Every structure is written in C-alpha cells, then in structure tokens.
Amino acid sequence: MPDKPTILIVDDESSNLDLLEQELEEDYDVVTAQDGIEALQKADACAPDLILLDVRMPGLNGLEVVRRLRASERHVITPVILLTAQAHLEDKVNGLDAGADDYITKPFEPDDLHARIRSALRIGRLQRELAQERNSLKEALAQLQAAEAQLVHSEKMAALGKLVAGVAHELNNPISFIYANMDHFRRYVGMVKTVCESASLAPDAADHASNAFQTLDRLIESCADGAQRIKRIVLGLRTFSRLDEVERKMVDLHEGIDSTLALLEHRLKDRITLHREYGNLPPVECYTGQLNQVIMNLVSNAIDAIPGHGDIWITTRVDDDQTVRVAVRDNGQGIAPEHRSHLFEPFFTTKPVGQGIGLGLSISYGIVEKHGGRIEVDSEIGQGSTFTIVLPIKETLER
User: Fold this and answer.
1) Mean pLDDT, rounded, for 390-394
2) What CATH code is assigned to 245-399?
3) DSSP state of 49
4) 227 vs 326, which has greater pLDDT?
5) Cross-strand partners of 351
6) Where do the structural domains in the chain lie, given as residue ranges?
7) Which of the four pLDDT bands, split at 50, 70 and 90, describes residue 159?
8) In this predicted model, which residue has the larger pLDDT, 271 or 90?
9) What pTM does this model have?
10) 278: left (phi over 0), alpha (psi -120 to 50) or beta
11) Do 383 and 393 contact (CB within 8 A), yes or no?
C-alpha cells in the first residue's frame, strides 16, 4: 500500500486544528503547527506534500510564512493552500502574490476542501516530476560537456602525435649528421692546429692562429651542446606523448615528469624556480602519455598562478603499499573559495578571455579517475595551491 501524502496544518486556533485533523486523518498523514515559526520548523522536519496555512496568526502571519517557504529551495514547489475567514478579493490576491497556490475561505465545505487538496497534490507531484526531469537534463548536459571535453582532448593529442612524428622525422637526420661529423670536425681542427703549431709562423700570424683555434674550440662545444639540447627536446616530445602506446605498462613516473618539465623550461625562464623533491617510487601501471598530459596541465596552471617571481615544487612519494602521490605546489595567487567547487567542470576557467578554455583540469580529472585515482586540491588566497595526484601502483583500469 503506498504511503499517504503528508499534510502540514498551521492554525493558531486549537479547535480549527482539531477539526481539520479529524477531516483529513483518514486519507493523509497529518502534522500540525500553531504559529508561523513552528510551521517553518515542522516543514523542514517532515517535508510535507502540502501545507494548509492560516493567514491571520499572531507574530509571523501566513503571508510571511509563504514568502519564507518560497525563498527556501526545499519548499519552493511545495503546494500551499491558504485558509482564512477573509473573503475579500484583495486578500486572495495578496495571498496568491505571496506564493500560495490556492485560497479557501472559512467556513469550508469538506468536499471543496478535499477537491482542492487533491488538485494541489496533483500539481505538486507534476512539479516534482518536472524538477526531476530538469535535474536529469542537467546531468545529461554535464555528461555531454565532459564527453566534448574528452573529444577535444583526444583530437588535441592525436594532432600532437602527428606533429611529434613529423618533427622527429625531420630533425633526426640533421641531428645524426651533426653528431656524426662533430668528432671528425674536432679531429680535423686538431690536426690543423698541430700543423700550425709545428710550422714556423711569424709572431703576429701565430697569435691570430691561436685566437682562431680558441674560438673554434668554443664554437665546437657550442654546436655539440646545441645538438644535445635538440636531442633532449625530441626525446622529451616522444616521452611526453607516447600516443602509440594504447596499452597500460609499468613505467617510471619520474621519467615522464622530467620530460614534461623539459618542455616547459621556456615558460619558467628566470622568474620561477623549480624544485624536484622525488621519493623512491616503484614503477606504476598507467597510460604514460595521458599522465604526462596531466602533469603538463597542472604545472602550466601553477606557472600561470604566479604573476612575478615564485617557486614550484614537484614532490613524489609512496603513500602506502598500493598508491603513490605526485604533488604540484606553487606559491602563487591561490584559488578563491567560490571557485573551488567548479575547478573540474568542463569549460570553467578564471583566466582572461583568450588565455584558457577551461578544459585542462576537467581532462586531467577524467584521466586520473580512469586510472582509478583522484586529485586533491588545497589552496589559500595569497599563499598558493597544491594539486595532488593519488594513483594506484597497479590496478585494473576502466576502459
């Protein structure tokens, strides 16, 4: 048997309460209150399906009770029927304007009362169903936004993979030429230097030759260093994306973090000091490229949060036998409390127009969740923020 609807009856006259309770108790669960304050308390406590409310009450009158009910999210759609001995049109208009759904004049006819209650309950039920459908639509919209964010991420990573492949292909051959010829260059310069040193040169010519060979030595070292840096960049791009890896594998998280940080060196420049505080981590089972994307997003956000000079700390440690932690901390501006609940929503951003589309953290959240982990946030205005990734060392991931 279905539960009876609950009706809250509010009246300052005990005789009226008794009369209404006797009339309704067979069909409804009845709760009573004798003033406006008690009515609001009982409404919060029992969440009635309908409220029968007397207008003329000492203290908080019925119209004010209706206004307060409508200002509450819990009771904004709860049906309210006003009861009053005043039959003037102006009184009815005032009651309806305050937020009531119907108006019954005392003394009432039982059949009329029951009919109005049934009508109000039916309207209330329809409003609740509409509210549920609205919430379902909001959830569906959030899911669509998350799916769109993931699609943007996938397309972005696919484009990055093509770029990496093209850059690697174009750069590998020139780098190989430089490496292959550098030793020959050093050797031949050394041979020429030896010849010049053994030859009988005028003092001025000998000085010019010595200066020239010193300059050549510096140029050779500079070229070798440049080639080495290009090699690190290409290796960093490959390690960062690894889009060809479609399966999980046990990897060294520090390798991925270092390769990602290498790609961000140009943004750090001389204004931000990077501190690596690495623990002794075991290999972690993951999709490497995706986790590198998370680190990229968190460190990029930390850089953006520091308006001038500052510091960023990358800390790793084993949390327990089953999980590891990777924390990205900055001493930047911090996050306002009203923004924290929206951080991982797709398209939410506090950056100026054109500087961010609000996908980085939502994508990061989805990736970490896919790995069976979570992201923890700790922030204080003016003191900076810490984003901590907690990951299982080895766990069956959602596909």
Assistant:
1) 91
2) 3.30.565.10
3) S
4) 326
5) none
6) 6-108, 245-399
7) low
8) 271
9) 0.46
10) beta
11) no
